[in-house]
Amino acid sequence: MGYLSNSQRACSWWSSLMRATLLLLCLFVLSSPQSPAITTSTATSLVGNNSKSVSDHSALISFKSHIYDDPYGALSSWDNKSLHFCQWQGVTCGSRHPERVIALDLPSLGLSGTISPSIANLAFLRRLSLQHNKLDGSIPQELGHLHQLQLLNLSVNFLEGQIPSSLANCRHLSWIHLGDNLLSGQVPQELGSLPQLIDLVLPTNNLTGAMPTSLANLSSLDNLDLSHNMITGGIPPWVANLTSVTRLFLGLNPLSGGIPSSLCRLPSLARLDVPENQLSGMIPPCLYNLTSIRILSVGFNSLGGIIPSDIGSTLPHLRYLDMLGNHFIGLIPSSLSNSSGLLRIRFQSNNLHGKIPRNLGTLQNLSILGLSENQLTAKEADDWSFLTALTNCSKLTKLEIGNNSLSGVLPNTSPQISRSSIFRRTRYLEACLQI
Ligand SMILES: *[C@@H]1O[C@H](CO)[C@@H](O)[C@H](O)[C@H]1NC(C)=O
Ligand SMILES: *[C@@H]1O[C@H](CO)[C@@H](O)[C@H](O)[C@H]1NC(C)=O
Ligand SMILES: *[C@@H]1O[C@H](CO)[C@@H](O)[C@H](O)[C@H]1NC(C)=O
Ligand SMILES: *[C@@H]1O[C@H](CO)[C@@H](O)[C@H](O)[C@H]1NC(C)=O
Ligand SMILES: *[C@@H]1O[C@H](CO)[C@@H](O)[C@H](O)[C@H]1NC(C)=O
Ligand SMILES: *[C@@H]1O[C@H](CO)[C@@H](O)[C@H](O)[C@H]1NC(C)=O
Ligand SMILES: *[C@@H]1O[C@H](CO)[C@@H](O)[C@H](O)[C@H]1NC(C)=O
Ligand SMILES: *[C@@H]1O[C@H](CO)[C@@H](O)[C@H](O)[C@H]1NC(C)=O
Ligand SMILES: *[C@@H]1O[C@H](CO)[C@@H](O)[C@H](O)[C@H]1NC(C)=O
Ligand SMILES: *[C@@H]1O[C@H](CO)[C@@H](O)[C@H](O)[C@H]1NC(C)=O
Ligand SMILES: *[C@@H]1O[C@H](CO)[C@@H](O)[C@H](O)[C@H]1NC(C)=O
User: Which of 32, 278, 290, 422 suits a disulfide with 256, CB 3.0-4.6 Å?
Assistant: First the structure.
């Protein structure tokens, strides 16, 4: 009995670890976005006159004056009188306008301070990358004067206040990354008027209110990430208007209501990530037909219904299937073996019954299989054949099958299995086996 309670502790420890992992995984994408290349050809409407470079110089000086801690001396070249400001670290000037700053890239330098509003005088600026520093204060609304700005990355700082609606004046903005800050207020509805917006990435802030309807205008949007905020309301049906979207991250919010079936009209949707909301109802059946889906992550909601028996054939490109912590019923579809690229299946804490399909053992890349806390059964020795089959999954590292109705004897081959690599690889197997 002591062994049993130990194992229970181990498993519940693992399930909290899993929640933490889920949180982390929200931030990663399987198919990473192509790194944005700044186009350099659109300056036709601009006057090729370098006399304004004086103001670029003073804007940079003002930027530096607002930085009070520069632990790695990143800005020391900015004091070197024998260097032109175009040679200062992090500063890039244009080739057509050789004395105008087109990019300011100072990421991950431990800079503390605020963002000087004077930066708005860098009229040719296309890229502002200040991510992963210790900047605080607010995002200056003056940034709206940067009419050439294409990329704004202020992620991972301590910026607070609201997202300035003036950013809607930066007509060329394609990438807005403001995640991991302390931003509050609503997502400005004005951002819905940015015709070239590709990434709107605002996770892990304190944003409130519903998703503004104006975002439905963003026909170029590829990646919408509002996860880990305080976004309320539901997943609006108009997300179907985001016809270019491939990734939707809306997890860890208090979103309620159902998953709209209009999502099925998104032909390129590869990742639907909505864990840890208060979503209820069924997953729209047509979503199980959306062949583009690679990651379906709906864990820790109040969703229900039967997982379709042919899911593995209708979603052939699945990598992650996370449905844990819901009310799903029915059998574990054996067709999952047809979705041969599956890396992770997490069905824990649902109401699934029946036997564990042995052909899951054909998933050669399967790394995590979580089935605990369901009503899965095993009585006959043959019901345990899934375990033998899983020894073929050479990448399996976590197998959780505790708190089901698995009884009887382990397969005859169990001595071989316990000597085989599966027991060495699946650290949690023994801890989670409760028979
Ligand atoms: C099994 O259920 C018990 C009681 O609900 C719980 O304390 C334990 O953490 C569960 N174990 C697993 C492996 O889920
Ligand atoms: C640049 O602008 C200044 C003042 O606006 C003007 O005097 C000068 O002639 C211009 N130079 C060129 C090359 O256009
Ligand atoms: C200033 O820059 C020049 C040219 O790169 C360099 O030779 C010189 O050592 C720098 N001076 C200081 C004080 O860093
Ligand atoms: C923005 O910065 C974050 C944090 O360092 C990084 O993960 C992301 O790739 C950056 N995005 C762009 C478009 O530069
Ligand atoms: C969204 O588009 C509609 C028509 O396409 C337009 O009337 C509306 O002003 C746009 N909203 C925003 C916020 O740009
Ligand atoms: C988030 O916003 C809410 C409502 O505006 C506020 O009560 C709360 O203190 C904020 N939390 C943080 C961490 O800023
Ligand atoms: C979404 O697109 C449809 C069809 O193009 C249009 O009728 C509808 O007004 C759009 N919804 C929003 C909220 O813009
Ligand atoms: C899924 O696709 C199949 C084949 O195209 C079709 O027969 C079925 O009706 C679709 N199901 C839903 C719910 O769209
Ligand atoms: C896998 O897909 C094939 C072809 O669609 C189908 O005949 C077979 O029954 C599927 N396997 C399972 C286990 O569903
Ligand atoms: C398994 O993973 C490897 C390495 O990532 C990949 O090359 C292979 O195609 C995957 N197998 C399947 C069936 O997807
Ligand atoms: C494991 O894979 C081998 C080779 O593909 C196959 O012959 C064997 O039947 C598989 N074992 C199980 C238990 O599925």
Answer: 278
